[in-house]
Amino acid sequence: MKASVIAHRDFVVAEIDDRLYGAFLEHLGRAIYSGIYEPDHPTADAQGMRRDVAELVRDLKVPIVRYPGGNFVSAYNWEDGVGPREKRPTRLDLAWHTSESNAVGLHEFSHWCGTVGTEMMLAINLGSRGLDDARNFVEYVNGPTGSYWGDLRKSHGRAEPFGVKHWCLGNEMDGPWQVGHKTAQEYGRLANEVAKTLRAFDNSLQLIVCGSSNSDMPTYPEWERTVLEHTYESVDYISLHMYFRNPAKNTANYLALGEKLDAYIGAVASTIEHVRAQKRSKKRVTISFDEWNVWYHSNVQDRDILGGAKGWPHAPRLLEDIYNFEDVLQVGCILNTFIRRSDVVRIACIAQLVNVIAPIMTEPGGAAWRQTIYYPYYFASVYGRGVALRLNVRSPGYDADVADNVPYLDIAGVHSEAESTLTFFAVNRHPSETLEAAISLQGFAAARLIDHRVIAHPDLEAANTLAMPDTVTPQPGSGIVIEDGSLQARLPPLSYQLIRLALG
Length: 504
Ligand code: AHR
Description:
It contains eleven helices and 26 strands. It is an alpha/beta fold. The strands form six sheets. An eight-stranded parallel beta barrel has the order 3-4-7-8-9-10-11-12, surrounded by five helices. Helix 3 (131-142) runs parallel beside helix 5 (184-201) and helix 5 packs parallel to helix 6. Bound molecules: alpha-L-arabinofuranose. Residues 26, 69-71, 171-172, 213, 291, 351-352 line the site of alpha-L-arabinofuranose. Alpha-L-arabinofuranose is lined by residues 26, 69-71, 171-172, 213, 291, 351-352.
């Protein structure tokens, strides 16, 4: 099977925002406790943070991490997580039916962000709480000393403001499962008042209003229109979420879900334009896709805890999806979609980062390892910075549940002028045929191959586990030929490829 691609230096989508490779950490299961934080662990630093986990995160070059939820945030009192640890209350977490010790809160999380070289993106509780708490929280985090909240922060050991720029105005407020769920009208009005108030404190804050929890929500896409009509001039981003699943074990349909993601982004981009036109506004709101990942492997085993049959356990094993090789292909396609839509998707956060539907897993007291999906995320984050190319792709396709003529070749291209490199991320979705891809390189200086990695495995269900952490790993690729401005590659059936070229 053959496919052809034209990559022209001048055909660009946008400069990719580094924040496209963000992540998310929630007080949920073992994401925090025995995930990033485990004071008794042999690698723990003076603050109790696991150095082995921090190292794996640092390698990913995660630019921003959303925290502390998620559904958790909608009944969270941020004050519980600051001040002397011995005085912090243990609370019942209504979102996940667990107990929250509050041993980790804002200050500890900020320390961790410093050690892994990332920035905090904080979510505000607009479920059980409202305007006043939002205002107090932002003043505590960013306000000057000499004021009540700034002085309180100082008394907790931090005189200097944290300087957090990104603020999520609630979480999934369209979801009936959310504590404090609201209609679009109720939420839009509240979010606008909160945004106005936060702007009165600091007009330069980056504010993210909740869009739909997924594109199957009955309120989608009216939700986006209504919420943006209320908030258009006071926010910067609208947040979208989507999780991918394959319970039917239908690989073709599963790997076509990128088309659904693309349609979702396209519809919300159009809704943004609709409201912008209605408002006669110059301003451009863009998308923060601040929760995305595969999430379904752990659904059955989680039922007891979520249903309350286990009481209120602290940091139990929840949402611990064990990812397989098939999920590598899916995550590769998702990231390619974000790169191709980087004109409108400016922020995206893999949900989540450690233990809970995560690329990194840990054993309490033991090892930390990379799940299969760590690798496509790593490659995109490390090598997917620069300008996204508008590739012209001709590939045979197949009909799936969510779309017809889904191209077997899923590909994204990134040109980094600063590094003089051209990088392609490619997935062959065909179950049995090798794809012979010809990529015509136009307008670029002479290219030479500097890296070619392949992720492939005969078993779609192969996974990396504590006992076998390296079952699915990238391997050196072979067979790429670059001649007369054309790159020829043979992509094995159901494989992921990273192809990097040096220019000039
Ligand atoms: O990431 C897990 C959960 O998924 C989040 O808490 C929630 O926002 C979403 O429904």
